[in-house]
Each structure stands twice: as C-alpha cells, then as structure tokens.
Amino acid sequence: MATTGKYLATQEEMVEARLPLGSRDLCSKLLIPLNQCRQESFYLPWKCEDERHGYEKCEYDLFLQRMKKMQEARQGKAQGAPIPATH
From CA 87, how far away is CA 31, in angstroms rounded? Predict the structure, then answer.
C-alpha cells in the first residue's frame, strides 16, 4: 500500500505541473509524469500504460485505506467508543 509521503509531490511541483486541487493527494508524484507522457503522446490510449497503472494502483490503495478506516470507525461507534479525529 502507498505510504504517507512516498508518492507525494511537493507543493511547488504540483503548482508547476498545474495539477487540479482534487488531484493533489498522496499519489500526485505519480500523476505528474503520467500527465507529461499523455501530453507528449497526444493522449493515445496505448501509450503511457506503465505510468497509468502505477497511478491507478496508488489511488486504489488509498481507497482501500480509507475504507479500512471507515470500517474501523463504524466498529468503534457500534461498540460505543469515540471516533478518532482524522486531522
């Protein structure tokens, strides 16, 4: 699974790459080269497959982490424990 910071680009890298705010997550470091490859290859679907699969795997792992945290929060709520802050 993706670890915190391993795939996170710096704020300057994200601004320079003009990433939308919704895409500035823990997988942003993988999205920057994917977008560059897409632009260079005119968005041909068979190009940039390795970059795309790496980015999609990272996003899927983040999704699984969020679902695991939600499940744990639901179990804690059912048992009467307070829900931990996510900040």
Answer: 24
Contacts of 19 (CB under 8 A, 6+ apart): 9, 28, 31, 32, 35
Quick one: pLDDT band at residue 21, thresholds 50, 70, 90?
very high
CA 81 – CA 73 distance, rounded (Å): 9
Q: Is the pLDDT confidence value at 81 over 90?
A: no
Q: What is the model's pTM?
A: 0.80
31 contacts 59 by C-beta, under 8 angstroms? no
- H helices of the chain, in order, are 11-16, 28-40, 49-78
Cβ neighbours of residue 7 closer than 8 Å, sequence gap 6 or more: 26, 27, 28, 29, 30, 58
Query: Could you tell me the CA-to-CA distances from 70 to 1, 7, 62, 75 in Å, in that order?
Result: 17, 22, 12, 9
